[in-house]
Fold:
Amino acid sequence: MLRLALTRLISALPNLAGVVVISFILTRALPGDPAAYFAGAAATQEAIDQVRVQLGLDKPLLEQFFLYLGALARGDMGLSLTTGQPVLQELIARLPASLEMVLLALLLACAIALPLGVLAATRPGSWIDQLCRLVTTAGVSLPTFFTGLLLAYVFYFLLGWAPSPLGRLDPMFSPPPHATGLYLIDAAIARDGMLWWASFRQLILPVLTMAIFVLAPIARMTRASMLAVLSADFIRTARASGLSSTTVLLTYALRNALLPVVTTLGMVFGFMLGSSVIVEKVFGWPGVGSYAIDALTASDYAPVQGFVLAMGVLFVLLNLLVDLLYGLIDPRVSVTA
Amino acid sequence: MSASASPASAAPMNSTWKHLRHVLGENPVTMAAMALFTLFVLMAVLGPALVPYDPLASNSDVALQAPSAAHWFGTDALGRDIFSRTVVATRLDLGIAVSAVALSFVIGMPLGLAAGFFGGWWDRIVTRLADTIMAFPLFVLAMGIVAALGNTVGNIVLATAIINLPFYIRVARAEANVRREAGWIEAARLSGNGDARILAMHLFPNSLPPAMVQVSLNMGWAILNAAGLSFIGLGVRPPTPEWGILVAEGAQFIVSGEWWVSFFPGAVLMLAVFSFNLLGDALRDIFDPRRRT
Structure:
């Protein structure tokens, strides 16, 4: 097991390196002269040159790259011009908000998509199969910003069930004492039921929006792999041996069918990290995505670059986690690895 | 499958046509998608000539009016006709998607074919490139590219093309890889064709069917991506009508009940993506019946 984890870790390294190289290229591809930009609008030529030396922009590109690596190793992603704070610090402070939303959405999407896919596969051609087909095609066609606004209109304006779709917490509450940064967990630790409920209510719409978006790939994969497994010989044998259909379906079929689904989780994470930017903008969610958008609007590039790099690294790590999980639930993998 | 098929090719043409009719007839949804697709192409070509109002003309007398006979989709905060703006936006949105997909097709196919055909270090470099792009959440990478290169429509196209590139590289590489050793490739080589000619005249046409399916599936995704970038304020800028911007302009009115400002552009955007996705599924059914789900 340890050896497997090690091989996976090593195989993730080239991707990690690729992410860093592309991030570096993006930082140097800024329109115009980065030195003039970072020196500010009113800077003299002398000040610009000084900034150029300071940023190491007068050195050869390869040396710049190693300086960049050194800065990253020290956790230095530059300063945000608008807030004056180090980018890394701000990203870390805002990451829990994004993660709380993404993880809950993934849970919700799996809770709906897995049963839907299984039911559709066991009854091909039935209404539930048609429903699954509709959901998978419609799900990938829905722009998240459109779903989000629609949900906000229906559940906030028309029905009044959801709270005002703005931010993580109603202004009359103050955030729970910081433990994990995930409000649901922090509120539970503080044993504050009201606060927990308030944060939960704020989460419902953004989480629903994102879950609808990622339902489709999970349901589609579950259905397809369930169909493939159900027609396998060992299922026929299990049925012929007189096992109950629930045992056949859940213990025999589903366990095997889940393997390809776990593989798609990596791709699903990619979708979610991307679409979280849009969902955060729609719901005024104070996560890393809206941090990057605010910086973009203010032409503040360091946070945007930091965000792209952070998301790339996070995505590589999540894929690594999925790989490890796969090795854990499918013992055959470790034999071939 | 050109319209000017010679009599000699009539028989296979006929069977393709029958297969097409069978697939279409079996699935009425595909017919609907086909009709929608035609409608969107017409809107893109004729849109600006057809709309009842100037999409940029504001009129404060009719600001924020609900849909009516005069303004089918209502008006926005500046009194601009949302129907006209939504229809006119079709050309820009489809234009961005078509150029982006075409660009990644033109770059990705040769790269992928060469990688699959030659193998070796060339294969390793191209595969590494595709993997590196895929190592990012693609929408985030597109954001980073547009932010770095500058906030223009051209860069939206470029960013969308770059994030689509790995899909074409992979399709072309897989196709070239399985056919590299095929007898007819050997035959072509023996009759004096060079590598470049084999790639262009023999391997490329044979990898077209899966590539076309990819194009159709990617189109919807490219539209979503471009609209998403505009929604967060990258690329197309107001007051230019573009679906993502139109939805963004109405976002603040959702909480006060003026739903139509965002709803109609968003619904049209969704329909466009939906019809491309359905067409992609149908194309896959036609070209590759085994992968039908």
